[in-house]
Design a protein that fits this description.
This protein is α/β, with parallel strands linked by helices. About 25% of the residues lie in helices and about 25% in strands.
């Protein structure tokens, strides 16, 4: 297995408490496959997070508490300060609507957020770290418009998976450890954008993205820390309908801020398009 070094921010070991859902909220967000259910018209972003996992991924081990791929609450990419759930919950731009535990066998937690100014929705899934391969497959399937799902939230039927307008992958680049030999082909003419925050994702994800027909608005050329500040910055630009290059600049500025690296280096690391 390839061993990847991650550049960890100073805030890495600050563990934040997460808002727990009420029973009613958990029921409202239950999702189903969209065989005959048409979702309401809404902008939906689907974020698939492969939880950091010392035991089941080809990474240089991080401290045990943040590298337990079966515990979202303290995981580096979910419950820590730079994790998707915690960072978006703290963001002034987003509101956490609800959360559900174990929506499927390989997804340990699901959150739905709403953007405060545009009304767009973000569905974030925390995959068991041992299920990183399935997370990667599901990402490519959604990029191709397959695996369409719906859930109830905010009095709406939201379409995610293959219904999503933008699909994002966050986590270790598992394609460095395993191969996928049957990438999903583009299913329809709907436009879908893609973000891949993982080490060297442009190199390893390119073939599957081309097959899916999705538009890569942000991915990486080297080793990186795939935490949520980069994603949140990119989404702000995307929701404002900025150009891919302007989205890239926003993302690079956030990465530079939190990682304390040079802006030039962040711009070289985070790129758009082919």
């Amino acid at each position: 297995m390839n061993k990847m070094n991650y550049f960890l921010p100073l805030t890495l070991f600050i563990f934040a408490s997460c808002l727990e859902p009420t029973e009613k909220e958990a029921q409202d967000i239950a999702s189903v496959k969209a065989d005959s259910i048409k979702p309401d018209k809404a902008t939906v972003i689907h974020v698939l997070v492969a939880l950091c996992d010392n035991e089941n991924q080809g990474i240089v081990p991080v401290p045990k508490a943040i590298g337990n791929g079966q515990d979202p609450a303290t995981n580096l990419y979910w419950g820590c300060g730079g994790g998707v759930k915690t960072f978006f919950r703290r963001s002034p731009n987003w509101k956490l609507l609800s959360t559900i535990k174990n929506p499927s066998a390989k997804i340990l937690e699901r959150c739905v957020f709403k953007h405060n100014t545009t009304g767009a929705y973000l569905v974030a899934d925390a995959y068991d770290g041992a299920a990183i391969k399935q997370c990667t497959i599901d990402f490519f399937d959604a990029c191709a418009g397959d695996n369409q799902k719906v859930l109830k939230a905010d009095n709406k039927t939201l379409g995610f998976g293959g219904f999503s307008n933008l699909v994002a992958y966050i986590g270790h680049d598992g394609l460095m450890d395993f191969g996928l030999y049957d990438y999903e082909q583009k299913k329809n003419d709907d436009k879908r954008d893609a973000i891949m925050l993982a080490c060297k994702s442009k190199n390893y994800f390119e073939f599957g993205i081309r097959q899916s027909g999705a538009n890569p608005i942000l991915w990486s050329t080297g080793l990186m820390s795939p935490e949520a500040y980069t994603l949140e910055a990119a989404l702000e630009g995307w929701l404002k309908k900025e150009s891919a290059q302007d989205i890239r600049k926003r993302a690079a500025a956030a990465y530079h801020k939190y990682q304390r690296c040079e802006m030039k280096g962040a711009m070289n690391l985070l790129v758009s398009g082919y």
